[in-house]
Design goal:
Elements: E1 13-24, E2 27-38, E3 42-46, H1 53-60, E4 68-73, H2 83-86, E5 89-92, H3 104-114, H4 119-132, H5 148-160, E6 166-170, H6 178-193, E7 197-202, E8 213-218, E9 221-226, H7 228-235, E10 240-246, H8 252-259, E11 265-270, E12 275-280, H9 283-296, E13 301-307, H10 311-325, H11 334-353
Helix pairs in contact: 4-5, 7-10
Length: 355
């Protein structure tokens, strides 16, 4: 789980996005997006495939020029900045863009040379980065001969070799096994705890739990942003929830009459089979009050616990709410078109990385 970040007002903004838009011809990839990312946090950016996650990241890093709006990273415009800004951030793309015919160590030395590191400094930082991702003992192997998971770790090491302040990682855990996925997030938390800022895109919705804050994008629009707790509350309509199981003799309307006077009560729902969900302002405060009220009314409670939807459920609810807010939008080929554009951009980025 992510540790509790400091309040936004007490932290410095390292990324500021204001009314950002990007078009590819008539196709709108990013539509009027605004948010901030703060120093020393893991900011997760989630959304369906083709929703604009990668495009937004490339706008922030200066790979794409925006069609509209404004971006600032570490106080500078990434599209017209000095080389000093590029030395302060790292970017890990979706695809493997290093040289398969070079060894792990040769690739690391090559990347370090791009940042102009002298040999005496390079040696220590390459060792540090490879140790961090546990690849030092594999340094002599050809990059093309190591496993896909090890290639992803090598990409991360190459991203970190110049000790960047801000780290962008695009779908870092796509296609790797669950154990390595957990390892990646452990490494991200270590970087965060060392004061780095991470901007992470992912299609694995459950990984939102590991982030300090999460932005949710759909069809190029930012539809929600907040901590995992805040997004859960939003998915539940601004409430929290308590699930209880009682004897089937006690109907939902009967329980509503008992619980409605409670100060935190908001609504009640019958989930069938004797399970009732009570929506409240604060589940921690309401749980003992619910138990006491039902006991006083002679209702036997078989179970009583706070309901915390997993992030797949949260994501589904946020998508449903967004669809209700935009009823004129239809599920046409836009997502497929945008996904194809982003994949084409991935191939171009990979080709640029090898030239």
């Amino acid at each position: 789980m992510a540790s509790q970040p400091a309040s936004a007002s007490s932290r410095r903004s390292v990324i500021t996005v204001e009314h950002l838009s990007k078009r590819f011809g008539a196709q709108v990839s990013v539509n009027d997006v605004s948010f901030e990312v703060y120093e020393g946090e893991i900011f997760g950016f989630i959304g369906p495939s083709g929703s604009g996650k990668t495009t937004t990241m490339r706008l922030i890093t200066g790979i794409y020029e925006p069609s509209g709006g404004r971006v600032r990273m570490l106080g500078q415009n990434p599209h017209h900045s000095a080389s000093t800004l590029h030395e302060r951030y790292g970017y890990m793309p979706q695809l493997f863009v290093l040289y398969p015919s070079l060894s792990v160590m040769e690739n690391m030395n090559f990347v370090a040379s791009i940042y102009g590191m002298p040999w005496w400094k390079r040696k220590a930082q390459v060792r540090e980065a490879l140790d961090f991702v546990e690849l030092w003992e594999h340094r002599g192997k050809l990059a093309g001969n190591i496993s896909g998971g090890m290639q992803r770790r090598l990409e991360l090491a190459a991203t970190l070799v110049h000790r960047p302040t801000v780290i962008f990682v695009d779908e870092p855990t796509a296609g790797i096994d669950p154990i390595l996925r957990v390892k990646f997030w452990e490494e991200f938390r270590k970087l965060r705890d060392a004061g780095r800022t991470l901007f992470v895109t992912t299609q694995y919705i459950g990984e939102s739990e590991y982030c300090d804050r999460v932005g949710v994008i759909n069809k190029g629009r930012l539809i929600a942003i907040g901590t995992p707790v805040e997004l859960r509350r939003r998915a539940l309509g601004g409430s929290e929830a308590v699930d209880l199981t009682v004897d089937s003799r006690h109907t939902c309307p009967m329980l509503e009459q008992i619980l409605k006077p409670l100060p935190t009560y908001r609504d009640i729902e019958d989930l069938a089979h004797g399970t009732i969900r009570v929506y409240v302002a604060d589940a921690g405060e309401a749980t003992p009050d619910i138990a006491a009220a039902l006991l006083a009314a002679g209702v036997e409670v078989k179970s009583l616990s706070e309901y915390k939807p997993n992030f797949d459920e949260v994501f589904f609810q946020l998508m449903e709410q967004d669809a209700a807010d935009h009823p004129d939008e239809t599920q046409d080929s836009d997502g497929v078109t945008l996904e194809r554009l982003e994949r084409r951009s991935d191939r171009q980025a990979a080709n640029q990385g090898r030239t």
